[in-house]
Amino acid sequence: MSDxxxxxxxxxxxxxxxxxxxxxxxxxxxxxxxxxKDNSWLAPVFLTILSxxxxxxxxxxxxxNLFTGIENEQTxxxxxxxxxxxxxxxxxxxKAEQQLPTLAAYVLQAGLFEEKANAEEWQQSYMSAGExxxxxxxxxxxxxxxxxxxxxxxxxxxxMELQGEGFDxxxxxxxxxxxxxxxxxxASEWVEQLGQVWEEALxxxxxTPLVNHLEQAPKADELGNLVEILSEQTENIEVYLLQVMQxxxxx
Length: 251
Hints:
The chain is an alpha+beta fold. The protein is built from 8 helices and 6 strands, in the order H-H-E-E-H-E-E-H-E-E-H-H-H-H. It has a 4-stranded antiparallel beta sheet, sandwiched between helices. Strands 1-6 form a two-stranded antiparallel sheet. The chain is rod-shaped and about 120 Å long. It comes from Oceanobacillus indicireducens.
């Protein structure tokens, strides 16, 4: 062994020995990188929420369009009150030219006057004698009518009775003027039916058919006066029938 203390094996400056010594003296420290938080589970959740939102939006738009389409169809099939006119409501504001049916009967004419005052004077005379008398103005003249019948035979029979009582009367065929009138569909149908109802009332000499038909009357301005006359309850049926006939002729 050498006497030099610096020749101890522990201090031999040998590369491998030094390295070994250093390795023995230091405990290796291993680096552990910080774990990155795993957020991969968020992707499916976000995708699910997004899908639900898209589906909900599409479904909502579809439902809105569906109900809008149904409402439009109902609007097209069932006109609103602003586009229709009926007694129970309205049916159709579109007006078209309508040929009015002619109402016809046989009347007993008691006089023809140029002045209304003269007609009214004779009217009072007949009414005082218990005979219904009605003044009908036509073409600037005043006709004094004291009866109305469905057939000529009935009218002649009545005329003979009155003539036997001293009344100067004669039978005359009487009918409303032909004319066209702009009416809604509902009003046109009602007027068309009125012709038949009129025949029934005239034949039976009662107002029941006309009163029943009045309940179906449309609220049309063109028919205002006629509807008003129909609603009046005149004591004498023949005067009532003449009033209705005149109101119809004045449409």
